[in-house]
Amino acid sequence: MLFDYDTLQVMWWILVGVLLIGFALTNGMDMAVSALLFKVAKNSKERGAIISTISPHWDGNQVWLITAGGAIFAAWPEVYAASFSGLYWGMLLVLFAIWLRPLAFDYRNHSNDETWLKRWDIALTVGSLVPMLIFGVAFGNLLQGLPFWADENVRWHYDGVFLTALIPLLDPFSLLCGLVSVAMLLTQGCLWIQLRTVDDISNRVRGLTLKLALLTLVLYALAGLWAYTFDGYRLVSLAPEGSFHSITGKTVEVVEHGLFENYKSVWILWLVPIAAMFCILKAGIAGGKGDAIKGIIYNSLAIALVIGTAAIAMFPFVMPSSYDPASSLTIWDASSSHFTLQVMLYAVIVFVPISLSYTVWAYKRMWNRVSEEDGSTGHY
Asked: I want to staple 89 with a disulfide (CB 3.0 to 4.6 A). Which of 21, 166, 288, 307 is the partner?
């Protein structure tokens, strides 16, 4: 099964998106459950019960993050290099937060002391909320364009150093995108808690599910209206064939208020953000009625459609540059060789079905609804 280079580049743009969606649906969900501990639970036993719904799966869900990162490194090495050059401190912040999670899962049940339990539950909450926010902030920055450029040797540079390179990334629009991410994933977490717990915990989270879904809907609509005013980028031409600098040799135009130019060109694409809003609303309604399964299905579709909305708006750009548009990275000039993409595709065809099968088996094998009493056993 051989594909031409252009087809493979588009396929890997889709596959990386699928991996990011998989990460949001799995690891994003268990982070959201952890972040809701103090909002949903009334005591340490209830917090323990909620933790027990994700403890068998959270480390397996991390595979989606690792796989997505590995796929970006292999499929788009220049994107990997450019992003780490400027987003390094943001990524370290996420990494430090994620480190708290395995420590909390492991050490929490070493003592029944209330102070001990509360401290590790706080660590678990913080270690979950920070990545949810930062990943959304990252998407907000990508939509606006990042202040980077490539020199004559294709070495990547950003304005500022240390915190002066991090703080500007936390602009109002990017923080709004971060809040969309948090609200949307917390909705997924509420639905999971509702599905896997019984009695008071499950019933208590119903109203919160609807409120979070409505908040997601409002924030998503606000972010969309705001983004509509942003400038976009148009790829005019790639670098001439045989050019030594295939990245910096292309021509890119800045289009005033053109971030949604792809939507304006192909009007049927507007169905993606419209469907996302519909699914968010349906997820909230289903969760409010106690139909967690239907809610999870709708909210999972919403997550995929929200990520798809951003991807369509940016296509074919992966990392647009607000400092030097010609240094922007697209799927055409930032990807690995034809041979590399082809071999990676074979690996995906073989190993992704295996991973999915194992994940389904693991969830089925360890499926049970938990109560407050399950949170007092100390075994997760």
From this structure: 166
